[in-house]
Amino acid sequence: MNAVCVLKVALVMSGYVHKIFSESCTPKLEKSLLEDLRSMTLKIQRGTEEGMNQPDENFSAFAASLTASKTLGSGEIIKFNKVWTNIDNDYNPRTGIYTAPKQGVYHFSCSVMSQYDKTLRVFLCKNSSRIVAVFTGYSDTNMATLNMVLALKKGDTVYIKQDGPQKYIF
Fold it and tell me: What positions does the domain C1q occupy (predicted)?
């Protein structure tokens, strides 16, 4: 089985309006949200049209997979060996570490699967600190997914790391 473990990152580059509300949408709020969405869509369209023939220096993204089952060592950083996309080469497949090229807001997503009747626990780490963990459990499916948005500074590192006795990645 190919690509089971996937990690991707995208730098959120366009400005946006963030609204938090605890009540149901009123017509006024709904109209405001639709206006914000329309405004963001126009900005994206304009940016796409203006930048069609020139690379965006501020864009960083990668998608990578692990292509074979493996028993991970204690505290091992997962090195995704199949790199599908690596714009600006900010992900290093030899180390398994992504380095932020600039300050910004980044989105990370990772899906993992463990071998049948085995478990796996991995952490998303930022600069050696554990941020969030996923555990595949003991079900027949043995899958888990994490999603996290992080504010990073230039040079911050992010990676997926195994921890604990749960170490069988499929």
Answer: 55-170
Closest CA to 84 of 97, 67, 65, 57: 65
Rounded to the nearest 5°, which phi and psi values hold at 40?
-65, -40
Task: With H, G, I as helix, E, B as strand and everything else as coil, classify residue 107.
Answer: strand
Dump pLDDT digits (tens) for 109-138: 888 888 777 777 888 999 989 888 777 777
DSSP conformational letter for 78: P
Q: What is the pTM of this model?
A: 0.64
Question: What is the tens place of the pLDDT at every residue in 75-98?
Answer: 889 898 899 999 999 999 999 999
Q: What does the alpha-carbon distance between residue 106 and residue 100 come to, in Å, rounded to a whole number?
A: 9
Residues 6+ apart with CB under 8 A from 143: 111, 112, 113, 114, 136
